[in-house]
Amino acid sequence: MRLDAYFVLNHTERPDGKNTFHFFLEADRSTMAHSRMAAKIVGYLAYYEQGLYKKKYSGMPGFLATTVTETRSRAEELRKDLYPLIPRAARSRYLFLPFEDLKPTNLIADASQFSDSLLKPASRKPAQQQHAFS
């Protein structure tokens, strides 16, 4: 995996063991074709399913793949086009946010909604590719 950034946020109001969130960041400047973004999503899925992140980041129970875009419309467009590639049970781990929403408080709030699911493997059902990407 070649991610743009990796960072960790701690939620001080949650109990130990449920307060640390690991983020893999993709910065989208609207220059990447959807097919390349789709390949990145497939790569993240494989990275998670094969447990490769655990080898590189010891002790990490899971991660959130966060794509940050320049505009809200681009974030919505990517979410709509790429979510079909992601198994339903894992979709909450893949965030698509406009830059204006990239704030620690927003990320922690989003992550807190599904933090317990980060500690369990996502059930994998074959993804159906419903969109063609250019």
Structure notes:
- By secondary structure, the chain is α/β, with parallel strands linked by helices.
- It has one domain (5-118).
- Helix content is 34%, strand content 19%.
- It has helices spanning 34-49, 52-56, 72-82, 104-113, 115-118; strands at 5-10, 20-27, 64-69, 94-98.
- Strand 3 (64-69), helix 3 and strand 4 (94-98) form a beta-alpha-beta unit.
- The longest helix is centred in the N-terminal third of the chain and has 16 residues, at 34-49.
- The model is unreliable at 115-134 (pLDDT under 50).
- Unreliably modeled segments: 115-134
Instruction: Provide the helix percentage.
Output: 25-40%
- What is the number of strand segments? 4
Average pLDDT, rounded to a whole number, is 78
Order of helices and strands: EEHHEHEHH
The major beta sheet can be summarized as: 4 strands, mixed
Rg, Cα atoms, Å: 14 Å
Question: Any chance you could write out the topology, listing elements then pairs?
Answer:
Elements: E1 5-10, E2 20-27, H1 34-49, H2 52-56, E3 64-69, H3 72-82, E4 94-98, H4 104-113, H5 115-118
Parallel strand pairs: 2-3, 3-4
Antiparallel strand pairs: 1-2
Brief account:
This protein has helices spanning 34-49, 52-56, 72-82, 104-113, 115-118; strands spanning 5-10, 20-27, 64-69, 94-98.
